[in-house]
Design a protein that fits this description.
The complex is a heterodimer of chains A (381) and B (63). With 381 residues, chain A is α/β, with parallel strands linked by helices. Chain A is built from 8 helices and 26 strands. In chain A, 19% of the residues lie in helices and 32% in strands. Chain B is an alpha+beta fold and 63 residues long. In chain B, strands 4-1-5 form a 3-stranded antiparallel beta sheet, covered by helices on one side. In chain B, strands 2-3 form a two-stranded antiparallel sheet. Classes of the chains: A alpha/beta (381), B alpha+beta (63). At the A-B interface, strand 22 and helix 8 of A face helix 1 and helix 2 of B.
Chain lengths: 381, 63
Amino acid sequence: MGGLRAAEALRRFGYTGAITVIGDETWAPYNRPPLSKEVLAGEVVSHETVAFPQRSSTADVGWVLGHRVVSADLDNDTVTTDDGEVFEYSHLVVATGLRPKRQVYPNNIHSGRHIIRTLDDAMGLRDELQPGARVVVLGAGFIGCETAATARKLGCDVTVVAPGTVPMLRPLGNELAQELQRRHEAQGVKFLMKRTVSDLVGEARINAVALDDGTELPCDVLIEAIGSLPNTEWLEGNDIDIVDGLLCDENLRAKTKTGLSWPNVWGVGDVVRFPNRIFDDVPRRVEHWNIPSECAKYVGNAIATGEAGEAFRPIPSFWSDQFDVHILAFGLLALADSSRLVQGSIDGDCVFEYYRGDQLVGAAGIGLRSVVQGYRKNFES
Amino acid sequence: MIKINVDMNKCQHYGMCVFEAPKVFKLNDEDKLEYLATAEDSELGNVEAAIDVCPMQAIFIVD
């Protein structure tokens, strides 16, 4: 997505040079959010229905799909793919995204275990979600909870296991998170919070998980949604900071270890750690769907015009669909140390404001779209 | 003129499109999406931006 959006932005802002997009998946760019919902529910089953539309402006972009970039030499302006091909560049846009974290267990069997990151992952899981299947979702973030809701709607017996006190605590805050858990439970999803899986049970295929309290939970399908890691290994050996994603300056240029900026190496998407002046000058990775597009627009303009201009300060936004609950949010809610209900009621449509000290850092709501959308202006420059 | 179609089975009325192309999309008093099925060619850039930011990818330009 980041690669496609960068190519589109380059053309939109007048860049006429050659563009090559390299990606390890064989599919042309597609939209990932439906993977935990419509694709699993069988409503959307082909690449075509999740593919981003291709525009005429990017018809001449060279796509190198099914190949992973394995190394980069930023001093000599080249990247090398897994089949040994070397690509020279005048500008490099780093948009390699994330991959799911995986757990390794003593009895590390694979059959019956799933992750959801790619279309192939989701298609592989879809047929396993049969009515009555005992599904354990490991992790209670958005992907875990959305997947739990989808599996429950398909008639599966669903239990979410996670170490935190309530699901989606960090992004939503205690009050809204508790309400979301309540709504999930009303639909029949079970939660085992403050629990972790210590081992898998089964021989050829998983049939239970062993929990850290010594109990066993029957399990036909284990879905691991315990967070993500940035794909930056291919950048190792260069004068950059990839401790947690690619560290970039406020213009999305990669920074050197001594704090200078590479003039022709740019970061796009959730692989990037960047400061956002709306909030402060602390660089952070932001795993929201709108961030790749916002980065791409900024970087495309900077490369095409030769000027980065004003600092990059996108308004983060996210949404989540779980059962009939549709959450919309603006800001960086995870920065908040308090939240308060400002409209509606917690058991119906409602809007919350999120504060760090007395600074408004975000707003989120169930329903009441116009009210939530109204918070955008609080973050505009 | 450009022709616009929104798949109302997909649309969840998040209203992101409204900010990108306010002449074409709006949320009505009940917070439901309303849109113009045709727009001037000059709106193409804005409508494409709306397509890009739609969480449900429910907006299409019809040829």
